[in-house]
Structure formats: C-alpha cells, structure tokens
Amino acid sequence: MNIIELHEVSLEIRKRPLLTDVNLTVPTGEAVALVGANGSGKSLLLRLMCLLAKPTSGRVIVAKSHLASGREMPLGFGVVIDGPAAMEHRSGIDNLRYLARIRGLISDEDISRWMHEFGLDPLSRQPVRQYSQGMKQRLALAQAMMEGQDVLLLDEPFNALDRDGVSQVKTLLQQRVSDGSTLVFTSHLQGDVSELADRAYLVEGGTVSRI
Ligand SMILES: Nc1ncnc2c1ncn2[C@@H]1O[C@H](COP(=O)(O)OP(=O)(O)OP(=O)(O)O)[C@@H](O)[C@H]1O
C-alpha cells in the first residue's frame, strides 16, 4: 500500500513551470529519499505531499486513513520543510507545549523526554532566537516526531547537526521506520541516502526519476 502517490503532477508558480508530469509513490513503511541540486524542487515535492501546496495539474493522493475533514495537514504527518520554524521569543519547551496543545495527544513528561532525546534541555528558559542552528534543527525534529507521527516529511534532516546529532537522528529515524513509520527526506549526501533510504528519486529539470 502507498501512503502518498503523485500522478502526472505539474506545478507552476506565476506561469513558471517548476515541476512537470511527476509520478512518484511513497510506500507505507518505507524510507524514501529525494535528491537533487539546489532549487530542483525537492521542498516543493514535500509541500505537495503534505497538501500544503496544490498541483496545477495532476493528482496528489494521500491514504484515506490519514485524511480528516477540515484539516489542511494530513493526520499523523510530522513535517519540517525549508528549515526549522519556531516562535523565536519563546523557549524550546514552550514552543513544543504550544504545538502539543493543538491535538492534546502528549503530556509534559513526553515533551521533556523528546527534548532529552534530541539533546535539548527542557528546563532551559533560553528563547529560541538564542539557539544555534543545530539546536533549532533539533527542536524542529522533536516537534515532527514527538506525537508519534507515522509519516515524516523531512527537508534536510541532518542540516546543521554535529556528528553525534547526525548519528542520534539517524538512529531515531531508522527505529521509526523499522516500527512501521514512513519517511520521506531530502539530502545532498549520497552516504545518508544509501544508509537510510529504501528507494530514492532524483529531482532534476522539473522531473523526477527513480534511481
Ligand atoms: N513560493 C514560490 N514562489 C516562486 N517560486 C518558488 C516558490 N517556492 C519555490 N520556488 C522555486 O521553485 C524551485 C524549487 O524550489 P525548492 O525549494 O523546491 O528547491 P529545493 O530542491 O528544495 O532546493 P534546496 O536544495 O536549495 O533546498 C526554485 O527555483 C524556487 O525558486
């Protein structure tokens, strides 16, 4: 079964064709890598997959089990696209608490555990604006995974992480996938792709091909 399918998807923004006739499938429980040069359209593909962007033509299909009426973002999707985003004047834990309240699925203890898992101090009152890029990335990944999201769409998940961070996050992602979750990630590094991905697509010249 596929969790996401793109059929003949094209996307134009202000008459500029950015993606053309893209066919791509994300099987449930697999790790899928999107590779390609800067500006090739990898982030746009992630936006299409979580329904944040609408195709100009073609169809994006998300498994019914993950759709809920009245919601833009499919259920159970954990997403980091175009770098980490947070309320900069609030602490890390306040950011995660704010997001956790939306669905009410996890407790404060869960949030603290996830912060520890990503090497962040839940007791710190430091506002996110004072975080390093790597800390912001860790917070974004914690947000994407803390509610047990079973479909992870992660743009360059290892960006800005130190060596230990890369290895911790790889282990967490591998665990999630071996527990049945689905992962789509972008990367510029062949090593990450061969280590993590069950399948990979090359995004080039507005088209996508399996590699
Ligand atoms: N909102 C937008 N309006 C106009 N053009 C856009 C918009 N978003 C993306 N683009 C263009 O679409 C193309 C693909 O962008 P995208 O961010 O998907 O690339 P990418 O493969 O993720 O690049 P990178 O590796 O640098 O992150 C780029 O040429 C970009 O300028």
Automatic annotation (TrEMBL):
Residue ranges constituting the ABC transporter domain according to the UniProt record: 4-211
One Pfam family per UniProt: ABC_tran
Molecular functions (GO terms): ATP binding
Domain of life, per lineage: Bacteria
UniProt entry keywords in alphabetical sequence: ATP-binding, Nucleotide-binding, Transport
UniProt-listed PROSITE patterns: ABC_TRANSPORTER_1, ABC_TRANSPORTER_2
UniProt protein name: ABC transporter ATP-binding protein
Species of provenance: Ornithinimicrobium faecis
